[in-house]
Amino acid sequence: MENFNYHRPATTTAAVALLKKSKDGKFLAGGHTLIPTMKQGLAAPRDVIDLTAIKGFSGIKVSKTMVTIKAGTTHQDVTMSKDVNKAIPALAQMVGKIGGVHVRHKGTIGGSLANNDPAADYPSACLGLGATIETNKRKIEADKFFTGMFETALKNDEIIIAVHFPIPKKASHQKFPNPASRYAMVGVFVSQDGKGKTRVGVTGAAPCVFRAVEVEAALNEEFSAKAASAVKISAKGLLSDMHASAAYRAHLLSVLAGRAVAAA
Amino acid sequence: MASATGVGASVRRKEDLRFITGKGQYTDDINLKDQAFAYFLRSPHPHAKIKSINTAKAAKMAGVVGIYTSVDVAKDKIGGLICGWGITSKDGSAMKAGPHPILAEGKVRYVGDHVAVVVADTKEQAKAAAAAIQVSYETLAHVVDAAKAMTSKVQVHDVAPDNRVFNWGLGNEAETDAAFKRAAHVTKLDIINNRLIPNAMEPRAAIGAYDAGTESYTLYTTSQNPHVARLVISAFHGLAPEHKLRVIAPDVGGGFGSKIFIYAEEVVCVWASKHAGRPVKWTGDRSEAFLADAHGRDHVTKAELATDANGKIIGLRVHTIAAMGAYLSTFSAAVPTYLYGTLLSGQYNIPAVYVTVDAVYTNTAPVDAYRGAGRPEATYVVERLVETAARELREDPAEFRRKNFVTQFPHQTPVIMCYDVGDYGAALDKALAMSDYKNFASRKAESAKNGKLRGVGLSAYIEACGIAPSAAVGSLGAGVGLWESAEVRVNPIGTVEILTGSHSHGQGHETTFAQLVSDRLGVDINSVSIVHGDTDKVQMGMGTYGSRSGAVGMHAISKALDKVVAKAKKVAAAVMEASADDVVFQDGSFTVKGTDKKMAFGEVALQSYLGHKFNSSEIEIGLKESAFHDPANFVFPAGVHICEVEVDPDTGHTTIAAYTCVDDFGNLINPMIVEGQVHGGIAQGIGQALLEGCIYDEESGQLLTGSFMDYAMPRAGYMPNLADFKLGFTCTPCPTNPMGIKGCGEAGAIGSPPAVINAITNAIGVREISMPATPLTVWNAMQASGMKKAAE
User: Fold this and answer.
1) pLDDT, tens only, B333-342
2) Is ipTM strictly over 0.90?
3) Any idea which fold A60-166 has?
4) CB-CB under 8 Å, B776 with A180
C-alpha cells in the first residue's frame, strides 16, 4: 500500500472541501472495498477522507411509512435494529447475511451503495423496495441511482447522507451465495406495497443491479411463487464466470424469485 | 488398562494452551537483530524467455540492501532445487528432470516463478524496488492442461520434448489384458482428480542468518522436515556443510504436505544473508501461497474394471496423466507412482492390476504431495469404479464390495504392497449399522417430501502409510531412507526430554509422544517435554508426512525407552544390591523379586547421575539413550466411509446430510486426537469433492483461483451436523510396531471424496460427475441428464 494522507472531517462541507482540494482524494466509509483495493495496489489515492466522524452520519429512524438509515450506519446496527426488524424484516435479514461478522461491524450502507458492486446486497434492496437515496445535494430515486458496474449517479463531490426505504406490505430477500466469496451469485429482493405493486431487485446476476420487470409484471397479475418462477428469464446480458454460467444465473433468478415470493 | 494420561486416553493437547492464547512462536514471530526483508519478483507470464533484467534503477531506491538474480546464483555456484525421488520409465530410461534454479535462469515457466529477489531495510521498500526492476520478456506459448501437455507444441523443458517426465508402469500387464478378454462385464470411467491448493493456515516463511564469526548459517523455516532441508541445502545447493548450517522449524501452522518440500525462497534467504551481511527474512503472503506453494493432485485418468459372471473383480487397468507442473518438486515423482499405483488394488482381491502413468510438465506451479499424496487419487479411481460397477451389475454396492474383499492376511497384491493385517468386513458391518444403511430408502422418501434428492455413496479405502522401509523405498528410487530417530534424555530428577526427528505442525506430538513415555516410564505427562524441529538439538530425522510419526517416529522412541529401562534396571539392581535379572519395572517403580525393595523411577534417575552406589567403570554414568528405527513394512489403515447427501434439484446445491466413517487404525494412542485428524481429513475431502478446484486460464495461463474470493475452502457449514457425523473404529493391531498402531493423519482425506461423489451420482442418477461438484456442475449434470424434469 502506498502512503496517503488520512483526513477525518466533522462535517460534510469540510469533507467536500477536502476532496476538492485533493488531486485524487477518496471518501472512506467502512473501507471494505477501498482498503483491499489499496492493499493490492489497484488504487493509490493521496488523500483518504474518512466520513465516519461526521456528526449525525449514522443512525436509524423508522416512521409509519418509512425506514431511514443514515449513510454511515454499519450493517451490524441495521441487522440488530429492533425497529428495522419490525418494519422490514426482509431488509434486516438481508443485511445480516452481508459478509461476515467483522465486515458487518465496519461496512456501511452508504459505502455499499456508492461502490455499487455488481454482487452487493444493498442495491437489490434499494431497487426491490423503491428506496430514495439522499445526498448532500439532492434526493435520487433508486431506479436512477445505479447506472452501471461500480457506477452510480453520484457526482464526484456528492456524499450519501441517508437512504429512505418505504415500508412494504410484504418483502423477502433470497440469496444464493458464491461458494468461495459468499457474495451473491444471484440475490433477489421482492416486495409488494399496499397497492399490490411488486418490485423485484436482482443483484449478482448482471454487471449492475436491475429490476426483473418480467417477473414484476407476472407478480402484479398474480402474487404467487408459481407465477414468479414460471417467468422464463433470458440469459442474455447476464454474467458468466467459472462459478456460474449466464444460463445458470437466469435459472437461479427464477428459482429465487419464486422462493422470495413464497417467503414474503 | 490405560491410565488417565497414558496410551489410549483422550488427553487434552498440551500444546493448545500456547496456540490458542497466541503464545506460539512461528517463523514470522521471530525477529533477528538488524534483519532485512526479502521480496521476490515473480513471473507474470506462464512461459517466457528472459531477455534481460535491469536492476539499476531499483538498486538505487531507498533502503535497498541488495538485488540478486540468476547471474549472482551462477557466480556463487548455488545448485538448483532437486527432486529426491528418481523414477525409471517402462523403457528403462531415467526420468527427464529439467533444471530448477533458485532464481529463474533464461526462462520462466509458470505465473509466480521466482525471477529476482530484493533485500531491503523494510518489506515495503523491498516490494517497491522489485516493482522498479525492468525485466524484458519474450513470451512463449504455454500449456496448463495436463491432458494436452503431451500433444502440445509447447516445450516446457528442453530435456522433455513431449513434456513427458516419465512413462511408468506397474503390475502384471499380460495377465491384466487376459482378464479383460475373458471378462463378463467391463466398467469404464474417465476420471479427473482436481488440482488443489493446500492453504495451510500459516503461509510459508524463512529467515536466513549468516554468522561471520563462526562462518555458519541458521535457517528458520516453515518446514515439516528441517533435517532434510539441511541435508538438501548442504548437499545440493552447496551453501554450507551440514555442521555449519542449523535449520530450525519452530511452531509451524499446518502443512498438509506443502511444507515438506525445499523451496527456492528458503534457500535464497540463507544465501542472501551472507551477501547482505544481515539476517534476511521472507514471509510469504496468501497470494504467494496460492501461486507458489506446491499444489496437489491434478490427475487425468482412464480406468477400467473387469468382472466375471459372478461379479468377482478379475482385473483393473488404469492409465493416468499426472501433472507435475513446471518443475519437479522435492518428492513429486513418487506421488503418482509408488504412492499411487501401489494402492490400486484397494481392499479387494484383484488377481490382475496394471497401471501406466505419464507424468507431464505444464506451465503451472509444481505439484507434489498433499494430504494423502497419491493414495486419495488411487482410492478415488478404485472406489468410483467399484461403486459404478456394482450399480451397473445391479448389485448392492456394500455387498459387491464385501464379496470382493481381501479376507486372508498377509495379502500380496499385484502392485508391490503386502497387506499385513485387517478385517474389512468388520469395518463395513459397523459402518452399515452406524449409518442405518438398511433404512436409507425411508430417509430418501422423507427428503423427497421436502423436494430434495437424497443419495448414498460408499468408499472402502485402504492406504499405506508409516512410510517407509528404507531398503524398499531405496530400490524404488528414493534418494533417502525413511527411518526415524529418537533420543530419550532422563534428567537427574526424573523428568524426561524426548528428542525426535518427527515434526509436529498440528498433529499433537507434544501430547501423544508424552503419553507413550508416561505409559512406559510411569511419569506424569507434564514431566515430559518433546523437543523437535531444530537440527542443533536433534541429531537427524526424516520429519513428518505420510502419517509416519506414530508408526515410525514413536517406534523409535519406544526403542530408546526400552534401552533406558534396561539401563535403569542395571542402576536399580546395583543400588538395591540385587541381580539385574531380578529387578522388575512396573508402574514407574523398580522392585526386586521376592523382596520389599523398591525404587521409584525418579530415584533411579538420580542415582544414575550420582554414581555413588555403583561401579561407574561397569555401568556408565547417566540415563540417556537413542535409537533409530527403520520400519519393517508400511502400515495399512483401512475403513469404510458412507456419505448421504441431499441435492436441491432447483439449484444443484449439495448438502452433506449424514456422514459415517469407520476406521481401523489399530490401537489408538489418543482417541480424541485421532477423531480430530479424521474430522479434519474428511473436511478436506469434502472440500475436494464439493468446493476446491484450482483453475488456470487456458488462454492466458493465469491462475484464476488466486484468492479465497474464487478458491472455495470447506467451511464449518458444509460439514454434517455433529449428530449426523459419526466416527467409529475397529481394531486389528499392526504387527510391525510394538504399539500396534497405524497412521491416521491422511485417512479422512483419502477415503472421503469418492464417498461424497458416489452419493451425488446416486442422488441425481448420473454415472459421472466431476470434482468439485459445485452447484453449477451438479445443475449442469442434471440438465444434461434430464433428471431435473423427472424430479418435478
Assistant:
1) 999 999 999 9
2) yes
3) 3.30.465
4) no
